[in-house]
Structure to design on (671 residues):
């Protein structure tokens, strides 16, 4: 009998709950019992409440067990793990789990299935077909397809990717760049990290297609320093891809050239803002630049630069492979395609849910997430990271698409949802939003640099009931200044969590219903 | 120290926008970026010492002073806050006897730092102890981890 294939994830979120120990235990226990296994470290399915998830290949498909602790392994083997035997931890056929089955995984299709650095796996699961398709057409047709697909920037600003690409393609310059923003600093998000660690060739493929479309010959991926494993894995993926001819001076014999390099950030949230990121890549403090000029015309080292988020580039190979109509058949209105939503915070089944735009928060938090981890009622959901609004129950049925969220003064950001139960203090979270802005502000513009510190003080006064009502008016005035006077989203969007907390949860600030009517 | 800086510069000074890669190299090798290394780095990259100092002090990741023997980073961002991260942070500081604005334990063995998101938000709260990630953390589990460090 040949060795049975057993899969344990090597994603950071699996390692952080003991996946290495589980993998070691499987190998040691099988060796002790004389059982032949081939242990494969694959990417994660994004079913994080089940990690460490152990999967076993059976004739019926992969059967999963999770969450598994290393000392569960002997009892799992006793129960016939290698045949997919019954056990309290058995979750059945993984692909048939409701959580996975109901998803529309276009970008995350390979996630949890392939070994991240295996070029063979990548190719066997549809990898590089987008690149081959792009190499078969001219540059203008590439950006035209991206434009027609309706793909919008997944980093938060939702700017049409094709317009950016066209601008760079039509700019005249000796050197152009493609830069990937992998400075995924928003709490509640981990999709970029999953791509970098779990399916790195997909990002390389997407960026290479961008290079072909725009005439760029050098690319950088700016990875935050809080993701050291992602940096390591992605750097290795670049080396492998270059050795195999997918990157370098002659991509797949086409005569086209594209070099790629991973760069490590250094713990600055504002470097997720594209111009601050460019400064950082140039070796400077991450200070936001005034726009114009647009980075598409004068970006990295003053040259035309395509800047997109990891998920934007990662969506491109599928668009090139399957075509514009296929991609546009997902989503609603001007929000085309899918978004990898990330369920986080106080949630029972946290993980990655890729779905077409238009799903509701209620469906994600309860239908997929199963409600809070604490078992208490959900109080608020923060959508879109630290600069996103806190949504009360009255807003959980609004479809998640860019326009519908803009209409209520909220944003989807990078697709992260952080769930809070009824013990969370929204005034405290509003204060934290200001505190975080003060900590991370680059300091270039006054509303953000000073406003954030004043914001903390004003919220403290409101909560301490020190001249409360006038201070609420002051906070609103301050937020107005930050929204309208800040240079970038750091200052102009920090008021979103603050004001949504104040408007929807005034009682947490000590305001009575009557007070709230007045303010 | 001089040898380390020279080696890092030889390897990375030619990169476009080389300063961050160089500083990472120095900190990875020495554990921090000593003040004395700034003039050599500045000279090699044709920058002023003020520019190099500005970059080192702008970014949270770079340190000018050595950290304790063990470094504990506790995530303090929203997702971890929703799962008791603030109580965990307070517990860690009390346990390791960090008071006021001090980030290091009295005996210098531990440095406790705040981080803002480790990308483990579906398994909050999360910490990093000496470079290893740990999620679904509780005060009791943290105590067990720290006890393991003290023995080793």
């Amino acid at each position: 009998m040949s060795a049975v294939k057993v899969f344990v994830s090597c994603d950071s979120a699996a390692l952080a709950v003991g996946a290495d120990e589980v993998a070691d235990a499987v190998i040691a226990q099988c060796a002790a019992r004389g059982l032949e296994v081939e242990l494969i470290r694959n990417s994660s399915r994004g079913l994080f409440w089940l990690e460490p998830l152990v999967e076993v290949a059976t004739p019926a498909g992969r059967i999963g067990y999770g969450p598994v602790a290393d000392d569960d392994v002997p009892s799992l083997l006793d129960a016939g793990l290698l045949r997919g035997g019954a056990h309290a931890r058995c979750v059945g056929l993984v692909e048939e789990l409701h959580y996975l089955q109901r998803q529309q995984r276009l970008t995350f299709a390979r996630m949890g299935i392939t070994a991240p650095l295996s070029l063979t796996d990548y190719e066997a699961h549809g990898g590089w077909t987008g690149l081959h398709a792009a190499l078969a057409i001219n540059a203008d047709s590439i950006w035209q397809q991206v434009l027609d697909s309706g793909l919008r920037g997944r980093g938060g600003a939702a700017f049409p990717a094709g317009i950016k690409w066209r601008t760079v393609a039509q700019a005249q310059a000796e050197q152009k760049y493609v830069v990937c923003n992998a400075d995924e600093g928003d709490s509640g998000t981990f999709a970029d990290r999953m791509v970098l660690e779990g399916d790195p060739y997909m990002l390389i493929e997407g960026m290479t297609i961008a290079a072909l479309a725009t005439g760029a010959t050098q690319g950088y991926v700016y990875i935050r320093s809080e993701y050291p494993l992602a940096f390591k894995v992605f750097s290795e993926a670049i080396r492998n891809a270059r050795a195999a001819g997918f990157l370098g001076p002659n991509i797949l014999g086409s005569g086209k050239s594209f070099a790629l390099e991973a760069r490590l950030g250094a713990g600055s949230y504002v470097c997720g803002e594209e111009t601050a990121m460019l400064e950082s890549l140039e070796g400077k403090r991450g200070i936001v630049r005034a726009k114009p000029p647009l980075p598409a015309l004068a970006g990295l080292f003053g040259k035309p630069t395509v800047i997109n988020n990891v998920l934007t580039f990662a969506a491109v190979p599928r668009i090139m492979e399957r075509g514009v109509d296929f991609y546009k058949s997902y989503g609603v209105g001007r929000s085309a395609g899918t978004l990898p939503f990330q369920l986080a915070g106080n949630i029972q089944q946290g993980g990655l849910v890729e779905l077409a735009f238009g799903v509701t928060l209620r469906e994600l938090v309860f239908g997929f997430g199963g409600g809070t981890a604490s078992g208490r009622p959900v109080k608020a959901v923060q959508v879109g990271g630290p600069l996103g609004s806190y949504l009360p129950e009255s807003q959980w049925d609004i479809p998640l698409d860019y326009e519908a969220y803009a209409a209520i003064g909220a944003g989807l950001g990078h697709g992260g949802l952080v769930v809070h139960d009824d013990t969370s203090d929204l005034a405290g979270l509003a204060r934290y939003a200001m505190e975080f802005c003060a900590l991370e502000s680059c300091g270039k513009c006054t509303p953000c640099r000073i406003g954030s510190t004043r914001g903390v003080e004003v919220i403290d006064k409101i909560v301490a009931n020190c001249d409360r009502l006038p201070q609420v008016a002051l906070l609103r005035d301050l937020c107005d200044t930050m929204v309208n006077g800040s240079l970038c989203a750091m200052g102009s969007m920090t008021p979103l969590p603050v004001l949504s907390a104040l408007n929807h949860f005034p009682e947490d600030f000590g305001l009575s219903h009557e007070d709230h009517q007045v303010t | 120290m001089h040898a380390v800086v020279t080696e890092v510069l030889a390897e990375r000074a030619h990169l476009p926008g080389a300063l961050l890669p160089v500083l990472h190299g120095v900190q990875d090798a020495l554990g921090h970026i000593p003040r004395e290394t700034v003039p050599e780095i500045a000279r090699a990259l044709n920058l002023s010492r003020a520019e190099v100092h500005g970059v080192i002090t702008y970014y949270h990741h770079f340190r000018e002073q050595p950290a304790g023997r063990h470094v504990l980073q506790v995530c303090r961002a929203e997702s971890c806050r929703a799962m008791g991260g603030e109580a965990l942070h307070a517990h860690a500081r009390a346990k390791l006897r960090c008071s006021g604005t001090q980030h290091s334990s009295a005996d210098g063995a531990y440095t406790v730092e705040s981080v803002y998101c480790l990308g483990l938000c579906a398994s909050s709260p999360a910490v990093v102890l000496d470079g290893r990630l740990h999620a679904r953390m509780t005060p009791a589990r943290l105590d067990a981890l720290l006890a393991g460090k003290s023995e080793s």
